[in-house]
Design a protein that fits this description.
- The complex is a heterodimer of chains A (391) and B (41).
- Chain A is α/β, with parallel strands linked by helices and 391 residues long.
- Chain A has 3 domains: 40 residues, no CATH class; 215 residues, TIM Barrel (Alpha-Beta Barrel); 40 residues, no CATH class.
- Chain A is built from 12 helices and 16 strands.
- A 10-stranded mixed β-sheet of chain A has the order 11-10-9-8-7-6-5-12-13-14.
- The radius of gyration of chain A is 20 Å and the shape is globular.
- The N and C termini of chain A lie far apart (54 Å).
- Chain B is built from 1 helix and 1 strand.
- The chains are: A alpha/beta (391), B mainly alpha (41).
- β3 of chain A pairs antiparallel with β1 of chain B, so a sheet runs across the interface.
């Protein structure tokens, strides 16, 4: 293991060095690295492999466990009390981290289940930090709510650039489908995280929009405002335990979009994002096609589930046609080069409904149209407000 | 990562370019040099 080095890699398609800074991917000239002293860097060299993807992912999301202290009724990963029979062990994750470092990965996202249910999770995080990875955390927040030790909160912020907590409804409505004490635990966690958050870190809440919770978004906003930086509203994906329908999920998107101006006017401490938002970007700064950020699976991103199988994106876990193989039997490079990953990355925004838009909305990615265990590609425009092609 | 390397990274960030253009949910946390994106990259 190489400790205390800045992790970076030569990316041949950009002819630049990539590194991650406060959770943001940056590119720099090789000459700047040489000037700063090569001994300070762990530099991975890559050869060009693809025209439509980086030579390796920059971000890998690792599902540490499928076990969760909550059992949300819409969970895409079927997380809950039950442990997968062949769940990846902590020592296997440590050796995976070594492989990911050598493969040129720069960012690790930790996800569950609930990560804190995994025995030895902090050791994984410490090890990843020693290897030079930047890290972010996706959690249900309850662990932070329960603990009385402030040093645990401070410890978390010393490792993670971004902490994202899932809150899918308000008070007793939330408890009714998550856990009888979920709301108090999670909101306590958010308040503590907010109180001890360093200025350069990001606290985010993600909420899946449903027909049921849209009328309560205002109440939820009242509780979150002043504690968090970003409130990410997302489309319910019809997979895993979700019993919703594509129609209901889309209806929730439309009705929530109508509430947005009011929410944004009233709650100004946090930024509220919605899938129908247009996503303006500075073209002068853009080094990679917009598509690659909007649908990053198999282009810049890889997901590894708690049994070691790798997919372009977490929401595809039940779809064998996109499984690039197991980390226990394949090299990371052969997974990244697999025909399954190639299949996923071969479709562009032009193949989807909003392909012609100049300022793309965030709804176009294919995983928004997952239905059960299959992916429904949209070939006709998905008309919605906020889309320049539609309005 | 030690403080020295953090400073080194910060100074490199000033010379570097964002790989993806400015995202809507950016410019939130970083005082002077970068635009962290609370997404996947």
């Amino acid at each position: 293991m190489l400790k205390n080095k800045v992790l970076c890699r030569w990316e041949p398609s950009l002819k630049k060095i990539l590194f991650s800074f406060n959770g943001s991917l940056r590119a720099i000239e090789m000459s700047d690295i040489i000037e700063s002293g090569l001994e300070n860097f762990f530099l991975v060299n890559k050869d060009k492999r693809f025209d439509n993807a980086l030579s390796a992912p920059v971000t890998v999301q690792i599902q540490t466990t499928n076990k969760c202290n909550f059992k949300c009724e819409h969970c895409y990963a079927w997380s809950g009390e039950k442990l997968h029979k062949k769940e990846i062990s902590s020592s296997e994750i440590l050796s995976l981290l070594d492989r990911l470092q050598k493969f040129g990965v720069l960012n690790i996202q930790w996800v569950g289940g609930e990560v804190f249910v995994k025995k030895g999770f902090w050791k994984l995080v410490e090890y990843a930090q020693d290897l030079g990875f930047e890290q972010s955390l996706l959690t249900n927040g309850s662990f932070f709510g329960i603990t009385s030790k402030i040093e645990i909160i401070e410890r978390a912020w010393s490792f993670f650039d971004i902490i994202q907590v899932s809150v899918d409804d308000y008070k007793s409505y939330f408890n009714s489908f998550v856990h009888k004490k979920a709301w108090d635990m999670v909101m306590n966690g958010i308040k503590k995280l907010s109180l001890y958050k360093p200025k350069d870190k990001l606290l985010t809440v993600a909420t899946i929009l449903t027909k049921d919770n849209v009328p309560r978004l205002m109440f939820l906003a009242e509780c979150l405002n002043s504690h968090i930086d970003v409130w990410r509203l997302g489309k319910e994906i019809i997979t895993g335990r979700s019993k919703s329908t594509q129609e209901n999920s889309i209806e929730a998107l439309f009705s929530s979009f109508d509430c947005l101006p009011q929410l944004r006017n009233r709650y100004i401490s946090m930024e509220i994002t919605h899938p129908f938002d247009k996503d303006p970007y500075e073209e002068s700064e853009l080094l990679l096609p917009y598509d690659w950020r909007s649908d990053n699976g198999a282009r810049t991103f890889m997901y590894i589930d708690s049994t070691g199988f790798a997919y372009p994106f977490p929401l595809l876990v039940n779809m064998k046609e996109f499984c690039g193989g197991s980390i226990f039997s394949e090299s990371l490079d052969s997974i990244w080069s697999s025909k399954e990953f190639h299949l996923y990355r071969s479709v562009t925004r032009n193949d989807t409904g909003c392909g012609g838009c100049v300022e793309p909305c965030q709804i176009w990615p294919r995983y928004h149209f997952i239905q059960g265990n299959s992916l429904e590609l949209t070939t006709k425009p998905f008309l919605h407000p906020g889309c320049p092609r539609c309005t | 990562m030690n403080e020295k390397l953090k400073e080194l990274k910060k100074s490199l960030a000033k010379k570097s370019k964002k790989v993806f253009g400015k995202a809507k949910s950016s410019a939130l946390t970083e005082p002077e040099v970068s635009n962290p994106q609370p997404g996947d990259d």
